[in-house]
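Spend some time on the protein that follows and explain the fold to me:
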Amino acid sequence: MGAALVLLAGVRSARAQASPYLPLDDSRLPLIEHLIARGDVVDPSPMIRPFRYADAIKVLSAADTAPETTSGRLVHRLNESLRSDVRSDKSWWRVRLRGGGEAYTQKRRDPLHLGGPGTANPYGDFELWGLFGPVAGVVRTSIEPSLIGNPDWPNKAQENVSGRLIEGYLSGQIKWGALTYGQLLHNWGPVGVPGIPLSDVAFERQGLELLLGTGIVRLRALASDLRPQANAAGQSVNRYYFVHRLELQVSRRLLLVPWESVLIQGVGRTLETPFANPLSPTVLANNFGIADTGSNTIIGFDVSWRLGRRVTLQTQTAIDDFWFNKRNQKQDRYAFTVAGYGPIGSRLGWRAWYTLVSSLALRTQNPQENFTDQGVGIGRNFSDDDQLSVSVTVPAARQWLLTPELTFQRQGEGKINDPYPPPDANGNQITPMFLIGTVEKTYRVALGVAGREGPVELAGNAGFHHVTNDQNQLGVTANRFVARIKVTLAWGRSGSLASGPESSPP
């Protein structure tokens, strides 16, 4: 890995200044997404998050031409705010401390699938950047007692203090791509809903990520090792996960992306190059070629299409381990999202999406091949559900965003970690393709808020839920208030590695 970064950094004809990635929990990101949804700012990486600081500054600078308009003033403030975080020096450092607290009615970050008791806890994180020409190094670690009791957090043993590495990566960047090793939050799919191949529901994803190409053709790949699991015999099973994407910018308005993800597993298995190879179409070269029996493959297709001047339509479709033969023995498994966004008047934006995961998607007869890591989804965290959401984004004050939202969700009894249902006496799979058993229905009215003022950052969401067949119990109705809020104060400093430290905005 180190040799690869050195090689990448040493390409003299393709020198570039490295840039850190803008984290998914940055309080300014919802405002940037609002501007992208309105069409005021170009999306620097459609359906891929995070993007780099440099890419965000580039598109904001290009749009920073009308500071007298409402959206123009917001573009200008965000552009100045992001620019204040970075320096023009070839080699420089930055350190930031944040402290505050968070309160919530339940611990799972997904408000539609409750888990863990509600309470309030302190919060703190420490961030260190080091930029060395074309190489960026970032470390951000936190103390988060709220992780204790969160059903999606893998450490179940801690009882008092818990923390995590939010970001920890080295990224070598050149004109035609980047090679990044470490961990950070990802979401590959339409904004606002967890991506099918990769999302942040299982917190940070560790791995080696490759980006290679230009604005017309880009190859993106990620290789990650998952935590070993014990099989029925008590043996430790090694598990690895790979995603390959080919992004084709057909025109200024149309992006087409065929992609695939594959999970391989086995006792003593290693990170094998036939699957890690980003130029190998796994479903053809490996599944049908070498006939591997210890893997599960998803093939997918993404589309981002700008309709008219400002309205954008995006879709993400996935087919999980499609059987061409003996189709009666296995139910079709699939997932998809259809999303759209655009402007409302001169200030507001709208976003809407419908997403569905079929009853048996993301799991197989062998639980070692489920698309999970320590029982938590790598992309989606729940099967056998669908969701329809509509939201409006409303800028407020200087750098604040209000997001009223309406959501309807149906959740069947199929769960991503449940044993795969056996066939009937004739060998046929008779499980319903969608919505098994008693269906829970959730009607949600909510309001989100995010923003910062000086060193103060706030992110929160509160909603009222009316639930029928609560927890898939026929006839049980529940009305509940679900909320989460985090407030922090930040302090930061930065400086050139060739000179002394300087104070900088947080």
